[in-house]
Automatic annotation (TrEMBL):
Chain ranges passing through the membrane: none
Protein name: Pectate lyase superfamily protein domain-containing protein
GO biological process, one term: cell wall organization
Family stated for the protein in its record: Belongs to the glycosyl hydrolase 28 family.
SUPFAM superfamilies recorded: Pectin lyase-like
Length: 394
């Protein structure tokens, strides 16, 4: 059994953020208004923001880019690394607004992207991506662009995101890709429950990531955990509407990095499609999931509170109809309680070639319409300890 201790890097990150906030008096400040940004929500301020970034990035001092109150119209922007400044804080008191025409951003991969940066903090503010018009286009089955991720960090280190509001993203709200030492805290994410592919926070190919005290209301996974995620800590996250917290989908590629050392605790799911989910396509893969702890979660009318699905195929379209090569082992569910909106509250549908092993249920209490719920097991090995309701099929 793994020892439940909060990762040491999490404490270091919190101290780092506190020092960053308290040392702003020694920081060189750049106000976006000084570079020509207009807080009227109508004048394109993209160039001004990029100029402010260039000035901060080229400074040898710790720097702050300040965005005063107001609404700032911005197109797609990439903030590149290789900076001289050891620490860049972007303090936002206003709202960054996407163009009204969804096609402007829709053809881009990202709206606001940070690439190869080190020591960047985003504090406060709101990002309004104006996604509903694109969602409506997709709902009408018209020829629509895919849409842009609102905020992405790629190949970056020592990143802080605090007290940010992401509203109506076209696609994913926040993506952490190929990063190290990331601390996300007090973030709010809001999108309609039927908004397509609007994952709240997506993490992949990254290590030492903390997601703390966040509220996520969206149309897809509240948090999605992709291949190559290592040392992820999620705590005090509220999810709903949404598709829950998901590891996967995995087995997209034959050679795929594994997911390991993930702790998700003190989470609340409210009328979500899923609660705690691991999902993989039924196809060959070298990937794996191991060392996952799901602890102290509350389910309120959740369709699938606990689920492992190794035959994942949404809408039964283009299903590979093979056998999942993902190896799933050492998964703990402890202190999971609440209500399921379907009769099967626990479902383990694992690979016949690679059965799930080391699955542990402990102090689980899930009911269905104030009646006993059911469990379903296929190709899974494990044990149940203490109270487990519904009755374990392990």
């Amino acid at each position: 059994m793994m020892k439940l201790t909060r990762p040491f890097h999490g404490i270091i990150l919190i101290l780092f953020v506190m020092l960053a906030i308290n040392s702003t008096s020694a920081t060189t400040k750049y106000n976006v208004l000084s570079f020509g940004a207009k807080p009227n929500g109508k004048t394109d301020s993209t160039k001004a923001f990029l100029m402010a970034w260039e000035a901060a990035c080229s400074s040898a001092d710790s720097t702050m880019i300040y965005v005063p109150k107001g609404r700032y119209l911005l197109g797609s922007m990439a903030f590149k690394g290789g900076c001289k400044s050891p620490q860049i804080t972007i303090r936002i008191d206003g709202t960054l607004v996407a163009p009204q025409d969804y096609r402007v951003l829709g053809k881009s991969t990202d709206w606001l992207s940070f690439e190869g940066v080190n020591g960047v903090s985003i504090l406060g503010g709101a990002l309004d991506a104006k996604g509903p018009s694109l969602w409506a286009c997709k709902a009408s089955h018209s020829n629509c662009p895919s849409g842009a991720t609102t905020l992405s960090f790629t190949n970056s280190k020592n990143i802080r995101i605090r007290r940010l509001l992401s509203l109506n993203s076209q696609m994913f709200h926040i993506v952490i890709n190929g990063c190290e030492n990331v601390h996300v805290q007090g973030v709010r994410i809001i999108a309609a429950g039927d908004s397509p592919n609007t994952d709240g926070i997506h993490v992949q190919l990254s290590k030492n990531v903390n997601i703390i005290k966040c509220s996520i209301k969206t149309g897809d996974d509240c948090i999605s955990i992709g291949p190559g995620t290592k040392n992820l800590w999620v705590e005090q996250v509220t999810c709903g509407p949404g598709h829950g917290i998901s590891i996967g989908s995995l087995a997209k590629d034959l050679k795929e990095e594994g997911v390991q050392n993930v702790t998700i605790r003190k989470t609340t799911f409210m009328e979500t499609q899923n609660g705690l989910r691991i999902k993989s396509w039924a196809r060959p893969s070298t990937g794996f999931v191991q060392g996952v702890r799901f602890l102290d979660s509350l389910m309120r009318n959740v369709q699938n509170p606990i689920v492992i699905d190794q035959n994942y195929c949404p809408h039964n379209l283009n299903c590979p109809n093979q056998v999942s090569g993902i190896k799933i082992k050492d998964i703990i569910y402890e202190g999971i309680r609440g209500t399921s909106s379907t009769q099967v509250a626990i479902k383990f549908d694992c690979s016949p070639k690679n059965p799930c092993t080391g699955i542990r249920l402990q102090n689980v209490n899930l009911s269905y319409l104030n009646k006993p719920a059911q469990s379903s097991c296929s190709n899974v090995r494990g044990k149940a300890l203490n109270l487990v309701r519904p009755e374990s099929c392990l």
